[in-house]
Amino acid sequence: xxxxxxxxxxxxxxxxxxxxxxxxxxxxxxxxxxxxxxxxxxxxxxxxxxxxxxxxxxxxxxxxxxxxxxxxxxxxxxxxxxxxxxxxxxxxxxxxxxxxxxxxxxxxxxxxxxxxxxxxxxxxxxxxxxxxxxxxxxxxxxxxxxxxxxxxxxxxxxxxxxxxxxxxxxxxxxxxx
Amino acid sequence: xxxxxxxxxxxxxxxxxxxxxxxxxxxxxxxxxxxxxxxxxxxxxxxxxxxxxxxxxxxxxxxxxxxxxxxxxxxxxxxxxxxxxxxxxxxxxxxxxxxxxxxxxxxxxxxxxxxxxxxxxxxxxxxxxxxxxxxxxxxxxxxxxxxxxxxxxxxxxxxxxxxxxxxxxxxxxxxxxxxxxxxxxxxxxxxxxxxxxxxxxxxxxxxxxxxxxxxxxxxxxxxxxxxxxxxxxxxx
Lengths: 177, 236
Description:
The complex is a heterodimer. By secondary structure, chain A is mainly beta. Chain A is built from two helices and eleven strands. Chain A has helices at 132-136, 140-144, and strands at residues 34-42, 53-57, 70-74, 80-86, 91-92, 98-99, 102-108, 116-122, 147-150, 155-161, 175-176. Chain A has an eight-stranded mixed beta sheet with strand order 3-2-7-8-9-10-1-4, with no helix packed on it. A two-stranded antiparallel sheet of chain A has the order 5-6. Chain A is globular, with a radius of gyration of 16 Å. The model of chain A has no long low-confidence stretch (mean pLDDT 97). The chains are: A mainly beta, B mainly beta.
């Protein structure tokens, strides 16, 4: 049987397929309270990654004609991105496990020959303590890279570092899926 | 309506078929590749489900070669192919995103400063959907090669960028399609980043006289395989 086709970088000119409204997952009239997720992407030197496509997917609430569950946002000249969406609830894990509410986040950019996958959880969510992925990461600094921080009511922020820094700055946890 | 296979995990990638994050010959990877090992995540509903795109919300753009009735310069081409999964099942009604340089090797993008002409009649973005049997087709212009600053005298081979979503988040694929007989392929660090030679050569489309339209446009065939799901007892 054939194996999956190989990945190649999205390159620096992917903005030809960029539609800024895709960063608003509520634009088709989704029900529920809005949340924003902002953040930044930096490289191993701490410099902003200004040409990334940040993609967001959430399995909850279930996608339908009013809610795509998927969004895409460019990083700007400061390496910043911003999504508007609906806050996800808990979803089932494997076996009898339950997963804490989270976003799946994928980064595509020049210099990434394939997408980098991570997650954004919500800081201080009680279910985080028993989430299978979060509780599998022993280093608290690394685990913390998966937590979005509150910035006020319904506003969350997550900063992503592609590569460990020269002074030990913590690299974001990326996932092998 | 979601398919019954939706909760089933995807299979691991075949060894050698995917490029690494750390590819030293491609300079942009140096400060962008992770140094820590990725954390292996067995698939959950987050990875096994994925977005669906409707033509109502995402209207097709099937012809990049015409803007306002005026034809772009260059060699008109038709690209057709079939999208299947690793279990040889067609992926129906799935979105295919396309973008590329014009015939001169210039992207209509503020970041592209290559001294080659912009063509106002070339639309750099395409979007099509597969039919019920996984087939897609679009019309465009053969893109030109262009220089990039990866190393001295570096030129990208002619290529078209593709984005696929497939049936679940873990099947997401972004790649590039190349053209047969391009001597720049063997000099390109991005193409050569794929360890398995047979796998990278599958990114090279084939001239197809059945896709070619006489007196109109050359046709190329580009088939794509997305990750397949693990076999389940019900399917055995």
